[in-house]
Hints:
This protein is α/β, with parallel strands linked by helices. About 25% of the residues lie in helices and about 20% in strands.
Amino acid sequence: xxxxxxxxxxTPCRLSSATGRLTICAVGKRVTPLCLRCLFSPQACxxxxxxxxxxxxxxxxxxxxxxxxxxxxxRIGCSVYLVFDANDWVLVxxxxxxxxxxxxxxxxxxxxxxxxxRGLIATHADVDxxxxxxxxxxxxxxxxxxxxxxIESLEQGDRIKTFAEIAAQxxxxxxPAVTIERPIVDGELITIGDRALEVWHTxxxxxxxxxxxxxxxxxxxxxxxxxxxxGAIDAHHGSDIPSFIASxxxxxxxxxxxxxxxxxxxxxxxxxxxxxTIERLEGYLTLADFGTCAPHxxxxxxxxxxxxxxxxxx
Length: 314
């Protein structure tokens, strides 16, 4: 196979172990570890040295909002939102520690000054969203923001409540502890240049779950996804079904037009989808599906009555 055929067949990669950076190959017009000409025979490269590496074109979903998986063109992990105004920017969630360098390198190649990161924001304290916070903070020297109910889990590196340790499913992950510089609560504003994120406390999936309003957008965390499913309901990390229903009703009653979830694609707010999801969760209030997350299980009342009556199976 000749060199041009090899170039034509190159597929998108992640962070190059060979070069330590993502690059745009001006020949292949795609993200590659390095143009094969440069990698194997730099003297044969048809490009001038200054032309070999170019900044990546920004692909915002909405003005001032870039989602890093969408920007990269592949799924890195959970949704990571870069919200910016001019050179000021924040990250909402960061994902796993192993992806931090890839994300930050991508941000650098989008021409955002790393020194102007104004905050690393945790939507909640689940490992798939925040394991990389300590590493990102060390690189960017930026403050970490989270709800007060997430602070203990984050600062102590609580592996149980963050889902880093699920022995029954052979999940054994590290959970690096990280100090929270700014606790944030419902109604606060997080300024980014001349713009601001409005903090919504939307408990249910976890007790610390946050969402963030930006004009007609809601960075909605793990509250609801495009298929109508919701963030895992589990007593170990502070799930509460009545609170979850209240949070979904708050979203449904709002004039938000777009939901930007923490997993999966962005989607238009769909009142029918929300109503169906709320109805499903209301059913869980009196079922044992999620154990102690249900406030009442009527079947046990019925059983008590049948036991007292000595009733035989029908």
